[in-house]
Amino acid sequence: MNITVVGAGNMGLAIVSHIAFVGKHNVQLYTNKSIPDTITMNDVEAGIYEDTSNFSVTDSAQVAFSNADIIMCTYPAFLRMPFIKEVEKYLKPGVKIGFFPGYGGAEYACKGLIEKGVVVFGMQRVPYVARCEKNPDKFVAGILSKKKTLYLATIPYGFTEETAKQIGELLDIPCEPLKEYLSITLAPSNPLLHITGMYTAFKDYKPGDTYPSEIPFYEQWTDETSEILFDYDDEVQQICRALSPLDLADVVPLPIYYESPTPHDMTKKLQSIESFKAVRVPLKKENDSYIPDFGSRMFVEDFPFGVCILKAFALILGIDTPIIDMMLKFYKDLTGIEYFEPNGSFGKDILETGIPQNFGLNTKEDIISFYK
Predict the structure, then answer these.
(1) Does the pLDDT at position 192 exceed 90?
(2) What angle is formed at CA 217 by the lines to CA 215 and CA 222, rounded to 5 degrees?
(3) pLDDT tens-place string over residues 209-251
(4) Which strands sit side by side in the sheet containing 26-30, from one edge to the other?
(5) Spatial contact of 328 and 339, defined as CB atoms under 8 Å apart
């Protein structure tokens, strides 16, 4: 097959290195960055440290997508909608375009593609933690904390089983079909963990405050943070239950996913995950100290393409969300960006989000019809 990977960040380079190393398919990397001819795949758990040059690099959308069979988009959520507009004219009916991970509402922007026969797929979570070392003449794509099982769904849904099989084979990780694509859109992952952790880190911040050094994200996690996370996760589960008859049992509550029945257990769990220890509170250096980095993906992705989508579903379904509302107010107080007004109506910046209402999906019936 012709495989195109979009984006030369950590995840994109890791996926390219693995598929190219296996060598069964034609692999292209779509990026305007300068990439060496050889990438070293460092699969830590498998003990593989090998060079591969069995891929090509292009910045031409026509070259990258006109003959692609499967497209794997690793762009952050805030880049996906302009990307879809850029490439839609090159995508042929039957091509599969997927998002890693799939939350963020990109499927709504793909409505026209779906109507012309393109298959959209999403991954509930990324396949592994990717950490790449980039030197002028050598890129080492690190792969660690590989998932034991991946979960995927497609729109139209009828392609889910065959696509799960293909992606599982490409990534060499078993991939199971989900019952509903919405189990990806509403998956309690970064938009819950990141936003809850940032709330703890910055809730007392005032303009002009600085920090003497970088702050480990999960090591500063407290039981109070976990209690908020539990309440936040419960609001997500209320949304899932209200979307019956859709079966959203695959949206696994975080206490179950992390095997942490109490907030204290969750705190210990998150602090103990080895791959999480590299995550830092979003700060940037200014002179000899640090200030909040409001341009971090934790802000510009997880708020407009994470919590806002959850709030949008809650409005459609008539569900009260005091924790989600608290997080949105917290963000407005920090940045001045207003996605929702206190009464639940849309704020001045709502068009910068990925909510379904921006694409004409305004009722529960609209939602069910779109995903089915």
Answers:
(1) yes
(2) 105
(3) 999 999 999 998 999 999 999 999 999 999 999 999 999 999 9
(4) 56-58, 26-30, 2-6, 70-73, 96-99, 119-123, 150-155, 175-177
(5) yes
